[in-house]
């Protein structure tokens, strides 16, 4: 239906244009003439040659030769077209003189322009119509290009959204597997901590199932999530886990993408090295008006592959998609220490 309406609109614009050309001919040829009917009729004889020449250039020579850089053929066929159209115009003028000639000598030559001026006027109209047509084609091409760019960007955005959803879905089983493993161990030992662990896990699952679908969550919710996870790990490690979690939050109501911090803590608990009977992990979080800085450090097992698991790979991709050119992630695996430093610029995101 839309294409049909566009076709009708295009045809209507063409008709309006050529009607305007017709009135130009009547004015150009009959200025000062008293025989209006003769001039109007004579103008009709010039229309077929004018329209045919203009459309031949616009719809054949330009797209098939000039735009395809066949310059020699375009020049050659343009000369042929000029010769043939010139003959057609002259014949149109002669037929107009012959068939519209009247017996009254006053009206034998009612036109105010001679043959050269008439031919010149026709070619000026042809040139004008070609220029208008090329400008219109250029505008339509640009509009079509912009539409294609918009559709391409929309497609890219949809693909990124789907990929982001897939990455979020990966977090669920990975996190749930580790947590259930911990609770399973306590259940086997019939530990008193199991009920409390199940309660904290239920809070975490509530966060995962309902909050992670949001594009952003309040930073405090993410911190609570992280603290619940740390509590679970402390129960699992008993007295062999020491976590130093320092927070320096100068700005409230900051929003970030959910599940950004937990994968780093999870990686430290899983791959950290127990030294002298303890696993010591240092976590620092500082937030200002325009920057979030999160660092985590733990003893290293000197096993690079073990420190880069599903969670870290996942978070790299998510950060690249959510904060392109607005974050810095540094992961260092030195001789005795594994550390992660994450910086996120917040000025463009906290109010989104």
Automatic annotation (TrEMBL):
Keyword flag Coiled coil: no
InterPro entries for the chain: Bact_2-comp_sensor_kinase, HATPase_C_sf, Sig_transdc_His_kin_internal
MF terms in GO: kinase activity
Record-annotated membrane-spanning stretches: 7-30, 42-62, 74-100, 120-140
UniProt key word Iron-sulfur: no
Keywords attached to this entry: Kinase, Membrane, Transferase, Transmembrane, Transmembrane helix
Residue stretches making up the Signal transduction histidine kinase internal region domain: 163-241
PANTHER family: SENSOR HISTIDINE KINASE YPDA
Protein name in the entry: Histidine kinase
Source species: Polaribacter marinaquae
Higher taxonomy: Bacteria, Pseudomonadati, Bacteroidota, Flavobacteriia, Flavobacteriales
């Amino acid at each position: 239906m839309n294409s049909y309406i566009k076709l009708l609109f295009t045809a209507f614009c063409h008709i309006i244009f050529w009607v305007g050309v017709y009135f130009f001919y009547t004015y150009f040829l009959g200025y000062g003439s008293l025989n209006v009917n003769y001039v109007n009729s004579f103008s009709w004889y010039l229309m077929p040659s004018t329209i045919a020449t203009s459309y031949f250039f616009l719809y054949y020579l330009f797209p098939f030769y000039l735009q395809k850089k066949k310059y020699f053929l375009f020049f050659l066929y343009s000369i042929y077209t000029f010769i043939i159209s010139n003959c057609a115009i002259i014949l149109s003028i002669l037929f107009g003189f012959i068939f519209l000639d009247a017996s009254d000598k006053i009206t034998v030559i009612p036109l105010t322009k001679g043959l050269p001026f008439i031919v010149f006027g026709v070619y000026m109209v042809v040139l004008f119509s070609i220029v208008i047509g090329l400008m219109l084609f250029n505008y339509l091409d640009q509009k079509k290009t912009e539409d294609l760019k918009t559709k391409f960007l929309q497609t890219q955005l949809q693909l990124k959204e789907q990929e982001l959803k897939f990455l979020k879905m990966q977090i669920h089983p990975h996190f749930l597997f580790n947590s259930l493993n911990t609770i399973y161990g306590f259940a086997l030992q019939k530990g008193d901590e199991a009920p409390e662990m199940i309660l904290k896990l239920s809070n975490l699952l509530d966060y995962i199932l309902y909050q992670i679908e949001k594009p952003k969550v309040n930073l405090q919710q993410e911190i609570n999530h992280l603290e619940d996870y740390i509590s679970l790990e402390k129960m699992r490690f008993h007295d062999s886990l020491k976590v130093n979690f320092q927070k320096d939050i100068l700005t409230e109501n900051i929003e970030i993408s959910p599940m950004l911090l937990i994968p780093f803590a999870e990686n430290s608990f899983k791959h950290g090295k127990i030294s002298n009977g303890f696993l010591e992990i240092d976590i620092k979080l500082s937030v200002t008006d325009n920057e979030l800085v999160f660092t985590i450090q733990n003893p290293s097992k000197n096993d690079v592959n073990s420190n880069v698991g599903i969670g870290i790979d996942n978070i790299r991709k998510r950060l690249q998609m959510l904060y392109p050119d607005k974050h810095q992630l540094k992961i260092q695996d030195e001789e005795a220490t594994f550390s992660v430093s994450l910086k996120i610029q917040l000025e463009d995101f906290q109010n989104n």
